[in-house]
Amino acid sequence: MKEEQLRLSERNYLTTQVQTGAIDLDDASFQTAQRELAKACLPRSKEEKAKLLNDWCEQYLTSKCWQKLKAAIRKRRERRKGGTRVVTISARALEQLQKLSKRDQLTHSETLEKYLAKAVRRR
User: Fold this and answer.
1) CB atoms within 10 A of CB 40
2) Alpha-carbon distance 100 to 105, whole Å?
3) pLDDT tens track for 28-47
4) Is 25 helix (H, G, I), strand (E, B) or coil?
5) Quick count: other Cβ atoms within 10 Å of Cβ 18?
6) Contact, 60 vs 26, CB < 8 A?
7) Distance in angstroms (rounded) separating the CA atoms of residues 53 and 115
8) In sequence order, which residues have a C-beta less than 8 Å from that of residue 101 and are 6 or more positions away?
9) Which candidate, 81, 69, 82, 70, places its Cα nearest to that of 109?
10) Model's pTM, two decimal places?
11) What are phi and psi of 61, to 5 degrees?
12) Using CA atoms, how far apart are residues 98 and 94, in angstroms rounded to an integer?
């Protein structure tokens, strides 16, 4: 069930990006690109679908957009296997985190771990 939801969300993501114009299409009509994307997203084996989506991206996306999409996919894979997470913080919190990180010569993650561990121990 969860895997099916993921596949649906990925297909919906690409479709939404095409429909809203957020993805730059490379000399293709909107209707043609959308029709071909729908074909590529039909139920198939994982390998076949991956090849069709890759072919679609190479054919219909601008090279700049295709590079950005590949970078986003790489980042998502790294986060999944590396156990990292994305956190949204306020601008003020980021400023303080940067100051502490620079002062202690640590990464942002190391700084958060250091100071959160101290706070947890005090409780």
Assistant:
1) 21
2) 8
3) 677 888 888 888 888 888 88
4) strand
5) 20
6) yes
7) 44
8) 107, 108, 110, 111
9) 82
10) 0.54
11) -90, 150
12) 6
